[in-house]
Design goal:
349 residues, alpha/beta, Rossmann fold, four-stranded parallel beta sheet, 13 helices, 9 strands
Length: 349
């Protein structure tokens, strides 16, 4: 008798994704879940007027590209309105900043425009070298930077130079962050020592504050779902087609493997997965590992891969006062996303 086909189960430790500079550039587009994002399908919360205001301002920012330069009875050129070269969306997690950033990318004229996370741009510089990265990005109409964070002085100097050169060449910049540009780096390194660089970078942006509550928590309340180890195998494949691929790793095995893969390549670890399995989850006290998990969860969320996990709840992993430290907003964003992803792995009854 032929055995019934089952889903393919792999370990993420078997994957070591590689990417060159051209692959990074080719991948600088919005994640799949925002492939159809637009200002029209963004749903502002009526209780927070700043959300609707952001749509209006971003639409004007995008439409300024299309201003007619000529007109009048004597053919005189019409002066285009003065538009600051950058726009910066500051707000808490879950208020739709990435949706708005992707909407701007879709609306902006092409053919060359880029959308990526902060770490993808710094990785591009690492792969190409600074001057070659500037050359590769020069000529773009728009560069969108999601999850803008300055975690060390080197990143501060690098992004100040890069954005300055690109703005000077005519490129517009749009960014999102959970931190106002003037406060980037606070609680993480001696930001005061690099104040001039941070202020120079901030000068490129018009800052929009977007208030609101986490839309994921409005849709899904409570904590991360924890799967009983006795039911783990069943939960990992429940409701999936027979040709689906799932991963199955212990938390420690995943943590150890993440240390061997650059965060810019984390997306390659989960390519093609229908569900992510993590066994024996436990509290973290090492900040480096905690930040690696945050970067990994960001990519899992972009790909919308549901998570099945056993051990302690994933929203309880950040220990040792991490939620009170300089990276608390990053951890809170990861918690919000992990709650949504563990609920997504539970078939609706």
């Amino acid at each position: 008798m032929t055995a019934a086909p089952t889903q393919r189960r792999i370990s993420l430790t078997e994957r070591t994704p590689r990417s060159d500079a051209q692959a990074i550039i080719a991948g600088l587009t919005p994640p799949p879940q925002f492939a159809q994002a637009s200002f029209e399908n963004y749903r502002p919360d009526a209780d927070y007027p700043s959300q609707a205001e952001a749509v209006t301002i971003l639409t004007e920012f995008a439409d300024a590209w299309g201003v007619q330069r000529s007109g009048g009875f004597f053919g005189r050129k019409k002066k285009a309105p003065t538009v600051q070269p950058g726009i910066y969306l500051d707000g808490g997690f879950g208020v739709g900043k990435t949706h708005l950033l992707a909407s701007l990318w879709h609306r902006a004229p092409g053919p060359r425009k880029y959308f990526g996370t902060f770490i993808e741009y710094t990785s591009l510089v690492g792969a190409l070298g600074y001057q070659q990265a500037v050359q590769a990005l020069t000529g773009a109409t728009l560069i969108c930077i999601d999850e803008f964070e300055l975690d060390d002085p080197g990143d501060t100097m690098l992004m100040t130079r890069l954005l300055g050169e690109l703005v000077a060449s005519g490129t517009r910049i749009a960014a999102t962050s959970n931190t106002p540009p003037g406060a980037l780096g606070e609680g993480r390194f001696a930001a005061a020592d690099f104040l001039r660089e941070i202020q120079a970078m901030s000068a490129h942006f018009r800052t929009l504050r977007i208030d609101g509550t986490d839309y994921r928590r409005r849709a899904v309340s409570g904590s991360c779902i924890v799967t009983d180890p006795a039911n783990f195998d069943t939960a990992l494949t429940a409701g999936l087609p027979v040709d689906a691929e799932v991963s199955d790793d212990t938390f420690d095995a995943l943590l150890n493997h993440l240390q061997t893969v650059h965060p810019s390549r984390y997306a390659g670890l989960i390519t093609g997965l229908s569900r992510l399995g993590i066994r024996d989850v436990h509290e973290l006290t090492d900040q480096t590992r905690a930040l690696q998990i945050v970067a990994f969860i960001d990519r899992v969320y972009d790909a919308q891969v549901p998570i099945v996990a056993s051990g302690i709840a994933l929203d309880q992993i950040f220990g040792d006062g991490m939620l009170e430290g300089g990276y608390r907003k990053k951890y809170q964003r990861a918690i919000s996303r992990m709650i949504a992803l563990t609920h997504a792995a539970t078939p609706a009854e």
